[in-house]
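hey m, so remember when u said the tokens were messed up on ur end? i reran from scratch. heres the input so u can diff it against urs
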Amino acid sequence: MAVNINSAYRVREILKTISTKSDKAQCNEVWAEVFKIEEADSSRKNFRISRCLADLHDEVELIRSEMLKLGFSPELYNQSLNSCNHIFAVQLVTSQWSSPKQHIKPEVLTALGFCSEILPNEEELVDLTNLEELSKLAAELKSSLASSALPPYTIHIIEKHLNKIEEAISKYRAVGSKALEDVVQSAYGEVIANEEAFKEAKGSPELQKLAIMWQKTKSVLDGVVSADKRLGAAQGMAQKGNELLEFIQNINV
């Protein structure tokens, strides 16, 4: 079987994982496990889950669009893709797992399997140990910020990026390396817009930890081999990542 890493592959892998979960489980617990979301506050947890499910819905619609572009008849995959959207329905987050699970049928997995082989390969899989290391770094930075002597607005900026990195880790399974690209894109723009705040934090352990996290994010992203159609965008991210790290290194010495 050909293994192309694309939207259909990611959706199918998620469905295969959750298809064995107990009918009596709560949806938010199932999704929290899938997306590695550790959040004590139930409202915040459900909100983070909802964002990941919205991304999965977008991936489903991307599959539909790309299959249509290639000239395949919608009746071959539309029903299965519609079932996926029922499974990923945000309004079911607080429901019992049996409700969305009923839509995970063999024909849905088969249709996704065909779509994944038909659609082009987009990237290589990221080594999950790298994401685990990134998650550990995020926890260390969060702990440092709790007792930080930096100005409140600087802490807020760093927390903002910390949240984006944590969100990217959760979203990776749904959208792939796009989640990491969003981190680099956001960080690049934010650092340029808040240059003075970062300069004020020069030499601080918090900024050093954030720089290490950005370096890790960039190195993970550099390890992804993009398809031709995404190569230009990946090169653009690489350039932004280099400029971001160069800026941080210059003010961190």
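this time it looks ok to me. The two ends are 51 Å apart (CA to CA). if urs says something different then somethings off w ur setup not the seq
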